[in-house]
Amino acid sequence: MTDRADLGFVHRFIPAEDPNRTPLLLLHGTGADENDLLPLGRELAPGAALLSPRGKVLEQGMPRFFRRVGEGVFDVDDLNARTKELAEFVTKARAAYKLAKPIALGFSNGANIAWSLLLSDPEALAGAVLIRAMLPFTPDAVPRLDGKPVLLLSGSADPIISADQRDRLVKVLKDAGANLQYEVVPAGHRLTQQDLQIAAEWLSRY
Ligand code: MLT
Question: In order of start, what are the domains of the chain with their CATH numbers?
Fold first, then answer.
């Protein structure tokens, strides 16, 4: 099957080889693109369908999923508008490719739009793996996420994400009733082998 050009985002779609696996919605970090996380998706969820859009915002030529005013300072209006656009893409792509509800797997900027999607449209996702996510503001309203499986992987020495910004996200997810597994690995902002092991094990359960 070829990647459809009419779904609103440039993207890659890899059909499932194992129909029993939940599809993954791969959301890349700043400066990457729709190809970046495909190898990770294949490694962490062998045989799962992979849906991987490219963020539409360009920051000095680097693709992202929403605008930011500075490091860790989000343009919240843009985040909300882009989250809605992403939700529409997921709906259209699920219909076009006949996909079950996906689990989002996001890294950094991609993890941030993944939690935004989860909080604005909890029914869009079956769950989420959030790698190096941050919540730098207090969200207005938080829906119920009762039992929604979420894995949050943070780095203890992440130079980009403060402990406050991690803790706020943990609190919001817990208060919403998500089934949260929260792990702080001895790492900075980059992915480590330990992140991959924890994520693969978590994904094998869903
Ligand atoms: C963001 O803007 O989403 C965060 O600063 C993460 C990043 O993209 O570096």
Answer: 5-204 (3.40.50.1820)
